[in-house]
Design goal:
Elements: H1 23-38, H2 42-47, E1 49-57, H3 67-79, E2 82-97, E3 100-113, E4 116-130, E5 136-145, H4 150-153
Parallel strand pairs: 1-5
Antiparallel strand pairs: 2-3, 3-4, 4-5
Length: about 150
């Protein structure tokens, strides 16, 4: 007998069916990613991203097409004496989309480069998806500055 794989009875084959992401899984993955960034934990931070993840940062002139590109940039920052002192996430919203999810939050980050500290207020969007092995991995990150209001600038 030829045709589609059998799904019941002797000799049945099973197709892997992935389950939709849950809010809790996405929140855990995002919290682990933010914690690794806050600790300047290079390995844990980049392990949160798929190899083909892409990155859009308002501070960079070009889109970073994959994790390796971002890791090279990161290593350059570290070589310049850069490190994260703190990173606080707030106002998180999770949009569930089956095996993918969009995580949006505000992030306040304090960094230091050769003894000079700076704090940024940004909005970040991270797209997560469930991988073939069932884990949750980031596949896209977009970082934008929080606009200054007229009140704040006067």
């Amino acid at each position: 007998m030829t045709g589609a794989p059998r799904t019941r009875g002797p000799g049945a084959t099973r197709e892997r069916t992935s389950s939709p992401l849950t809010r809790e899984e996405v929140e855990r993955a995002a919290a682990a990613l933010v914690a690794a960034f806050a600790a300047t934990d290079t390995r844990a931070y980049f392990d949160a991203f798929a190899p083909d993840a892409d990155f859009v940062f308002h501070t960079e002139p070009d889109r970073l097409p994959d994790r390796d590109s971002y890791e090279r940039l990161w290593r350059g920052w570290l070589a310049d004496g850069w490190r994260v002192l703190s990173c606080e996430s707030s106002g998180a919203v999770v949009h569930l989309c089956g095996e993918a999810a969009v995580f949006v939050h505000d992030v306040r980050t304090t960094t230091e480069t050769d003894g000079v500290t700076g704090t940024t207020a940004e909005r970040e969007t991270i797209v997560f998806h469930r991988t073939a092995d069932g884990s949750v991995t980031a596949v896209h990150e977009h970082l934008s500055p929080v606009p200054t209001t007229a009140e704040a600038s006067t």
